[in-house]
Request: fold
Amino acid sequence: MARELVNVYAGLGANLGHASQSIDSAILALGQLPEILLVGRSSFYKSAPFQADGPDYINAVVHLQTRLNAIELLRAFQNVENLAGRERPYRNAPRTLDIDLLLYGDGNIQCPALQVPHPRMRERAFVLVPLSELAPDVVTQDELRNVQAQVVTRL
Reply:
């Protein structure tokens, strides 16, 4: 029996190499994966690194539907990151591509490999602003006000 389609939101970011091109390529790659349907994508946004160093980031959020479970989806995201040359030398290091699973349906997942909803998404303008573009019912005006000091520029 086939699993039901689950609505998923993922955040993408890059600040090394050709960041916009990396995000575009990653969105295309995600939409071509088996069991994943690309439903929508936000605009691209530029933001300074948050609690990290390095060049400015390009960020976006995608709305996907999938029959994969959350761990399978995480592995698929990591494979796309690896193909983009992602390295993990230290926490919050600059990166060629980062794909974070923000929301997996109504799921609340707490395990060593994955936490969903993403534990810090509500603190980050570079997530909330593009997410609100795709899913305005998921982000409150209070949440957007709480991060308004973090500058994100729509490209």
